[in-house]
Structure formats: structure tokens, C-alpha cells
């Protein structure tokens, strides 16, 4: 049953909201008058983001959860209903990225990528549909250009994002019968600072170097604040799909028309990347592999984004496990008026 003091303000649930794009989307929704349930695997990592969101006038409930688990996804949506009595927007943004050549990856890397980026989208979305149907709500499914065409040295990520694109597009087709709109977001590279929290394997320093450089170049990547504004605007309008960055637009269109050509080009690019180290091992956070001094000078935009969008205050958890498997809300934020 909805609480008797349920607010008239709309409510958004954002997964992967402790840092980077998820935090910026939550902030944009707060600025548009939404109260928030924000989720990440580490509840402690949500606290700096929570403070920023509260300062913008939102009531915030924080939840530590591994949303790829059925019981966690169920309890997360139940928390939104219990705390606010409604749900208007679900943003499925939980993500992880492993960087390294295929011979240096393990089976566990693929399992973890699917748990976070496919099941971490599918399970909250399916759980939230009945609640969203009451408000004719919106789902924003954060996928990636990696779900439209392959990216070298990102094979688990690419596989999981392809699955996420397929699910989100299919859900868009069927959820409309319930009055729920699904927006499939296909971002290219964004300057969120998240490259420092990527999980690297193989020749770790070399892998981090190329990945961080790509995320820092203005002509290759886009400003994350601008991206968040566009994504929220498209979601509230009910736009079926939004592709961010010119290169992502071009890449997805060319691949759809001439897949053999793009596969040959991407294969050529892969030959320029570091070769395998020859021994698959547990990936480690990229920030443990220091960048060369000359490269640090070229990646100032990425470093500045990391400092602004909480990439330092919420480092990635140990990739060997699934921390935050339980859920436990913490009531915070400004009183309802």
C-alpha cells in the first residue's frame, strides 16, 4: 500500500548512480523536480553523490545492491514503492568494463559483464513495469555503441551490451501496451572519468593508456554533463532511441549498411593495440596501472571529470566477487513539503 503522505513530486530510480554518468543523470532528474532512489553496489560509495543530490532539493533514498540478482532487483523496486508510493522513471545504468585482449580474459569476466549489464538492466526493468504502468512511466536503458558494433579489447563488455540493446529494443516494443515508454540510449565515449575504474588485464599499463586517451580527446568523446541532459530530455519525451557522439552515429549507421567494411576496419585497429600478455589473470582497477607522464598531460579532461563526478570517492569493488548483494535503504534528504 502506498504511504498516506505520498508526494506529488515524480520519483526516479537510478542504478549505478554513485558516480559518472549515473550520478549526472540523477542530478539532472533532481533539477527537474524528481525525488530519487539511487543504487550502487557499495552503499558507502553513494554518500558523496547523495550529499550533492540533497543539496539540489531532492529527497534521496540510497540502496546498496547488486541489481543483477533477482532478490536485489525485487527489493530495490519495492523500496521505491514503500518509500514514495510511486515510480515515474527507471534509469538502468549499472555497468562494468573489462579492458584487455581476448586471450587474457577469463570466463568469469564474461559472467560478470552479463550479470551487471544485461541482468542488471533486465531484472530491474521487469520488476518495475507494474509500478511504472500506474504512472505511464519511463525507462532509460543505458547501453553503448559497443552494443551496436564490436570494440576491440572489450569483448565481455561488447557481448553484454549487444544483449542489453536487444532486450531494451524488444521491451520498447512490448511495454507500450502497458503505457510505459522505453528509451534506448546508445552513448559513445563520454568524459566521465570512469576510465580510472575500468578493470584492466593483460599488459595493464598499455591497455589503460589507450583506453584513457580515447576517453579524454574532445573530438572522440563528449562532455558527460551535456550527455546527461540529452538523455533525460529524450527519456521524458519518450524518444525510442538516442545515440550520443558524432562518431557513434557514423559508426552505427555505417555498420548497419556495410558490416563487412566496418569489421575489416576494426580488425585493423585491433592490430595497433597491445598484444596479449600470455597469462589470463584477475583484472585489476586501471588506477593501479600508472600512466606515463607524457600521457597524463594529454588526459587532463578525463582526470578532471574523475574528480568532479565521484570516481575517486567510489572506486570499483573487487572484481572477484559480488559485493553489495543485499539491499538496505537509508532514509536521507530534505523533508517533503
TrEMBL record:
<dbReference type="InterPro" id="IPR036291">
    <property type="entry name" value="NAD(P)-bd_dom_sf"/>
</dbReference>
<protein>
    <submittedName>
        <fullName>SDR family NAD(P)-dependent oxidoreductase</fullName>
        <ecNumber>1.-.-.-</ecNumber>
    </submittedName>
</protein>
<dbReference type="Pfam" id="PF00106">
    <property type="entry name" value="adh_short"/>
</dbReference>
<feature type="compositionally biased region" description="Basic and acidic residues">
    <location>
        <begin position="305"/>
        <end position="315"/>
    </location>
</feature>
<dbReference type="GO" id="GO:0016491">
    <property type="term" value="F:oxidoreductase activity"/>
</dbReference>
<keyword id="KW-0560">Oxidoreductase</keyword>
<dbReference type="InterPro" id="IPR002347">
    <property type="entry name" value="SDR_fam"/>
</dbReference>
<comment type="similarity">
    <text>Belongs to the short-chain dehydrogenases/reductases (SDR) family.</text>
</comment>
<dbReference type="InterPro" id="IPR020904">
    <property type="entry name" value="Sc_DH/Rdtase_CS"/>
</dbReference>
<feature type="region of interest" description="Disordered">
    <location>
        <begin position="305"/>
        <end position="337"/>
    </location>
</feature>
Amino acid at each position: 500500500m502506498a504511504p498516506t503522505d505520498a508526494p506529488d513530486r515524480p520519483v526516479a530510480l537510478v542504478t549505478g548512480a554513485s558516480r559518472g554518468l549515473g550520478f549526472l543523470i540523477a542530478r539532472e532528474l533532481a533539477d527537474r523536480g524528481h525525488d530519487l532512489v539511487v543504487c550502487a553496489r557499495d552503499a558507502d560509495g553513494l554518500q558523496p553523490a547523495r550529499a550533492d543530490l540533497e543539496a539540489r532539493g531532492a529527497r534521496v533514498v540510497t540502496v546498496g545492491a547488486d541489481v543483477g540478482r533477482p532478490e536485489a532487483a525485487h527489493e530495490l523496486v519495492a523500496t521505491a514503492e514503500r518509500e514514495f508510493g510511486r515510480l515515474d522513471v527507471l534509469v538502468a545504468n549499472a555497468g562494468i568494463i573489462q579492458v584487455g585482449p581476448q586471450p587474457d580474459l577469463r570466463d568469469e569476466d564474461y559472467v560478470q559483464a552479463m550479470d551487471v549489464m544485461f541482468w542488471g538492466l533486465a531484472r530491474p526493468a521487469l520488476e518495475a513495469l507494474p509500478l511504472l504502468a500506474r504512472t505511464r512511466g519511463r525507462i532509460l536503458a543505458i547501453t553503448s555503441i559497443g552494443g551496436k558494433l564490436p570494440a576491440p579489447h572489450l569483448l565481455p563488455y561488447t557481448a553484454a551490451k549487444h544483449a542489453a540493446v536487444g532486450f531494451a529494443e524488444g521491451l520498447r516494443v512490448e511495454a507500450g501496451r502497458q503505457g510505459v515508454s522505453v528509451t534506448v540510449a546508445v552513448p559513445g565515449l563520454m568524459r566521465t572519468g570512469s576510465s580510472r575504474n575500468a578493470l584492466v588485464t593483460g599488459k595493464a599499463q598499455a591497455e589503460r593508456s589507450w583506453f584513457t586517451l580515447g576517453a579524454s580527446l574532445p573530438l572522440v568523446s563528449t562532455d558527460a554533463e551535456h550527455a546527461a541532459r540529452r538523455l533525460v530530455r529524450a527519456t521524458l519525451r519518450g524518444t525510442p532511441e538516442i545515440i550520443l557522439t558524432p562518431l557513434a552515429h557514423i559508426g552505427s549507421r555505417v555498420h548497419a549498411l556495410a558490416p563487412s567494411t566496418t569489421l575489416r576496419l576494426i580488425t585493423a585497429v585491433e592490430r595497433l593495440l597491445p598484444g596479449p600478455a600470455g597469462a589470463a589473470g584477475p583484472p585489476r582497477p586501471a588506477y593501479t596501472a600508472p600512466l606515463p607522464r607524457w600521457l597524463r598531460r594529454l588526459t587532463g579532461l578525463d582526470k578532471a571529470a574523475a574528480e568532479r563526478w565521484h570516481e575517486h570517492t567510489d572506486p570499483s569493488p573487487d572484481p572477484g566477487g559480488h559485493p553489495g548483494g543485499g539491499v538496505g535503504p537509508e532514509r536521507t534528504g530534505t523533508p517533503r513539503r
